[in-house]
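Notes from the 1:1 (GR / supervisor)

We went over the backlog. Supervisor wanted to see one worked example end to end before approving the batch request, so GR pasted a single chain during the call. The sequence is below; no edits were made to it. Supervisor asked that the structure be written out right there so they could see what the output format looks like.
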Amino acid sequence: MRGPAGPVRPVRSVRSIRSVRLGAGRVVPVGIVLLVIGTVPFALVGPDTSYWLLGAALYVRGLGLGSTMMPTMSAAVTTLSRTAVSRASSSLNIIVQLGGSVGTALLAVILSREISSGIPRRGGGGGGTDQMGGLPDQVREQIAPKLADAFGTTFWVALGLTAVLVLPVLLLPRNAPAGGAGEAPPPAL
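Structure output shown during the call:
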């Protein structure tokens, strides 16, 4: 999935520089809005949803992530003394890794439950997709809407979790940090 996200990298760098000059409180809310907008097509996904639409939505989500992650981290670190930055950056990386893992696990469980409840397993029992390769096209056409619903429900949860971010984002500094905002930090020794 590198294709749609690749062109976002230069934009992320520009957004990070802008967040230093403008303050994260002005850049990150725009990123949250982009994340929400980019998630909606996935929440409304259907069996006939265009891959181009989903690719464009991924691009918008990438813009949103680029406008939230680095500016938020920068805002957290700019308020610290130089001696505290190394410990804080390690802590922030741990929090990001744990948050990503817990979030991924939560969404995977929701998706799995939705698929299991919507698609009956061959021969009865719980649902699953492990045997879809051998299904006739007619049966696949019956299952496709159920799979789309399962993914849609999962992305509605992701959309809700993203929308909750609006509250802490309101606490981010809306102005650039004092004392040389926008200047490059001195080189590390």
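Supervisor's comment: Helices lie at 2-5, 8-22, 24-43, 51-66, 69-78, 82-118, 137-164, 166-169.
Batch request approved.
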